[in-house]
C-alpha cells in the first residue's frame, strides 16, 4: 500500500472519530481532558492518561481507536500499528492547542 493511500485512510479515520466535522459527545470530553493536561496523545495514535483519574476514559477511547485501526489495517493490508502511526499525524494536526504529545523518545511536549 502506498503512503498516500494510508494517509488518505487516516484522514477518513479522523473524520470517523470526530476529529473533523461534527464530534461525538466523547470527543468534546477528550478535548477538555487534553486541554487540562489529564490526557495526552502519543506517537502511536493512542491516548495516554497523564492523570490517574483519566485512565478509564483513556481505555475506552483507545479501545474504540484500536477497533478502527484493526478494521482499516485489514482493508489496506497493513498492520494496525502502521495505521495508528499515520493516524497520530492527523491527531496532532487537529488536537487543540495545549495538548500534550508523547514522542517515541518517551518525552512529552506540548502543542
Please characterize this protein's 3D structure:
Helices cover 57% and strands 12% of the residues. With 111 residues, it is α+β, with helices and mostly antiparallel strands. It has a 4-stranded mixed beta sheet with strand order 2-1-3-4. A hairpin with a 4-residue loop joins strand 1 and strand 2 (47-49). Helix 1 packs across helix 3, helix 1 packs across helix 4 (80-94) and helix 3 (55-76) crosses helix 4. The longest helix is centred in the middle third of the chain and has 22 residues, at 55-76.
Task: Indicate the radius of gyration in whole angstroms.
Answer: 13 Å
Strand order of the largest sheet: 2-1-3-4
User: Mind describing the biggest β-sheet?
Assistant: 4 strands, mixed
Oligomer: single chain
Uncertain segments are 18-23
The dominant shape is: globular
Count of beta strands: 4
Mean pLDDT: 84
The topology string of helices and strands comes to: HHEEHHEE
Residue fraction in strands: 5-15%
Share of helix among residues? 55-70%
Count of alpha/pi helices: 4
The rounded distance between the terminal residues' Cα atoms is 31 Å
Helices and strands: which structural class? alpha+beta
Keyword list:
111 residues, alpha+beta, globular, four-stranded mixed sheet, 4 strands, 4 helices, single chain
Write a brief caption for the model.
This protein is of the alpha+beta class. The protein contains four helices and four strands.
Write the layout of secondary structure elements.
Layout: H1 3-16, H2 25-36, E1 39-42, E2 47-49, H3 55-76, H4 80-94, E3 100-102, E4 108-110
Parallel strand pairs: 1-3
Antiparallel strand pairs: 1-2, 3-4
Helix pairs in contact: 1-3, 1-4, 3-4
